[in-house]
Amino acid sequence: MATEYDLVIRGGTIVDGTGAPGYRGDVGIKDGKLVAVGAAPGSATREIDATGKVVCPGFIDVHTHYDAQVLWDRMLTVSPWHGVTTAVMGCCGFGIAPAKKKDRMFMLRTLEGVEGIEAESSAEGLGDWGFETYPEFLELIERRGIAINLGSFVGHTAVRIWVMGEDAASRRDPTPDEMAEMKRIVREAMEAGAVGFSTSNSHAHHDPQGNPVPSRIIRYQELVEFASILADLDVGTFHTTWGPADAEMTPEGITRLMDLTGVPVTDTVVNIKPDGSHIVKLNAIEKAWAKGHIWFPQIPALDNTFEVGLEDPFMFGIDIPGRWRDSAPESHALFGPIAAIKTIDGRLAAYKTAEFREAFRKLGACNDWVKNYWPWLIINYTPQAPELEGRMLLDVAKERNTTPADVLLDLSIESDLHARFGAISGHQDPDKSELLRLIEDDIIRFGSSDAGAHVSQLVDSRYPSYVLGYFVRERGLQMERAIQMMTTMQAEVHGIKDRGQLAEGWHADVVVFDPDTVNAGPIQRVNDQPGNARRLIAKAEGIEYVIVNGTPIREHGKDVVDAESGELPGQLMREYLPISERKKRLQWLVDEVRERVDSGAARYTPKG
Questions:
Q1: Which CB contacts under 8 angstroms, 24+ apart, belong to 479-483?
Q2: Domain termination site, one of 394, 424, 454
Q3: Amidohydrolase domain spans which residues (predicted)?
């Protein structure tokens, strides 16, 4: 007699992702779909006892950079360790497709400069690449297989490099023929199944020569042309990282783009600052919603704490010449010459000189970019003085009656440059009270984990288990709200179909976790990337089962699928909800925001 289910999860507390109260029940799965939610009578090929556990939809990460890693790590670690079953990559205008052979290293150097993804490591992992065009890239991912579901943006910088080569980084405009070719490529990518078009105007995004990346030096009309392709096809999301007004991608510019095209927008990143600058951004976004636009700002769940050190001080800009040439020329002048030193012994000798120490002191005292980070630097790893780990650098400097620059240099030199420091580059919200206030609003979405990027400095891909362990268990955030923000609400950002909710007929992406123990584990340093390159990882605690399209991929903290050569259940997503349908489904939120703005009850009013 045939069983009614392939898998039944019995007796857990079902939190379905909608924000509705949890309840005890069963979840039945057949042929990769949810076929019973609440009661699942009958037999199953396999049953999981979830008594005392929470059963919820798999988590969705809307902002990752797995574009290269997906071709050597089919599990897309570490995201599924923390219950992520769906991710979207190609954000901020960057990626590796399309890419002509002659431009490959230039493309990887750009990723290295912006996203901290080591070019030599990526080149080794990619081998012969196996694709050039964007459709070929998607086809290769499907042939190789993936453990979790994946969506991909087509990136502005990649498109420009394909058409203009290294001229894409120059200030010249594309010719009419080049512009027509770029539009053809974007349309081709969208028709092949891209989730949308991504670009960047961040002042921190530079190419290998220290110049602004191609997406930063374009005319505004170019963005309108690309957004119009999404509008014409009635599908896709326009993702931008905003910054100075080089391309008019100010809040007003983004609003005007939506006025002209009607495309949904998501932007990176809203970081909480004591000066209230984040409220200025949110004020513009709130007004755009009141006009009828879809604009989801991404707010990190963690503080975006980069782990840095003088061995490879990314935050000081020596990974590529001129990285901070625009915003911190003094830092570039000091660290630029050290960038040419390729050995640890050579750099150590340079740091030991009295001349460098004096210059570093002056830099830390007068340069706003460096000075502003001293209060937010944490001592993460000092093998020669472990008692200092976890302390603020500034506090140790005060105890020693010296400068933070001297403490950082001393600890680095004493450890042969192995010392590591945590630089909080995101939120400045020590007690998290402002973040907890902001996420009460339905227009705010978690994002910018940057999974797959900055792998030697950052591991914010652990955010789902952190949210459940810290915000829910320790700070009292309602469990149902936390899960809603990491599932259903995330699917809305990109119009992802039939994922993010435990509902009959939807894809069976499910997580089972222990609410009493779930948390993000400690950060670890490993050398497991191609070429033995280093990265940071953090394991999850209390994530018992991770199920993708009905197939368990992790159980009790371990992979249960063959990551090397076996069949994997993840799907490359190529179909998304039409823009017109997304607007209908989100009309309730437009109405809600319009009412509060029109009634004088706007949530985000800048001071002064």
A1: 479/15, 479/22, 479/54, 479/515, 480/15, 480/19, 480/20, 480/21, 480/22, 481/19, 481/439, 483/15, 483/17, 483/54, 483/56, 483/57
A2: 424
A3: 46-206, 438-552
CB 462 within 8 A of CB 543: no
Token reading at 152: 């991909």
* pLDDT tens-digit series, residues 579-588: 999 999 999 9
**Per-residue confidence at 109, pLDDT binned at 50, 70, 90?**
confident
Rounded Cα distance between 575 and 236, Å, is 9
For 46, the enclosing helix (H) or strand (E) is strand 44-49
Same domain, 408 and 511: no
pTM over 0.70? The answer is: yes
Q: Most distant CA pair in the chain: distance in Å?
A: 82
| 3-state SS, residue 206 | strand
| CB distance 544 to 556 below 8 Å | yes
Location of structure tokens 């919200």: 429
CATH number of the structural domain spanning residue 559: 2.30.40.10
Q: Tell me how long the chain is.
A: 608
Write down which residue in 391, 424, 457 finishes a domain. 424
DSSP for 184-199, written as a single string = HHHHHHHHHT--EEEE
Question: Measured in whole angstroms, how far is the alpha carbon of residue 378 from the centre of its chain?
Answer: 22
Q: Are 449 and 520 in contact (CB under 8 A)?
A: no
Sign of CA dihedral 101, 199, 193, 547: positive
Q: How far apart are CA 44 and CA 560, in angstroms?
A: 19
Residue 381 lies in a domain: yes
Q: What is the pLDDT of residues 27-54, one digit of tens each?
A: 999 999 999 999 999 999 999 999 999 9
Condensed to tens digits (0 to 9), the pLDDT of residues 374-399 reads 777 899 999 999 999 999 999 999 99
Q: What six digits make up the tokens of 371?
A: 């000075």
- Tell me the average pLDDT across 101-127: 88
Q: Does a structural domain hold residue 467?
A: no
Residue 20's domain comprises 5-59+499-517+541-568
Determine the Cα–Cα distance for residues 340 and 247; give it in Å rounded to an integer: 32
Secondary structure (3-state) at 307: strand
User: What is the percent of the chain where pLDDT is above 90?
Assistant: 75
- Mean residue pLDDT across the chain: 91
What whole-number distance in Å separates Cα of residue 22 and Cα of residue 244?
A: 45
The one-letter amino acid at 55: V
Query: Is the omega angle on the peptide bond into residue 78 within 30 degrees of 0, that is, cis?
Result: yes
> What is the Cα–Cα distance from 15 to 25, expressed in whole angstroms?
10
More confident residue, 343 or 134: 134
- One domain for residues 503 and 408: no
The predicted-structure confidence for 459-482, as pLDDT tens digits, reads as follows: 999 999 999 999 999 999 999 999
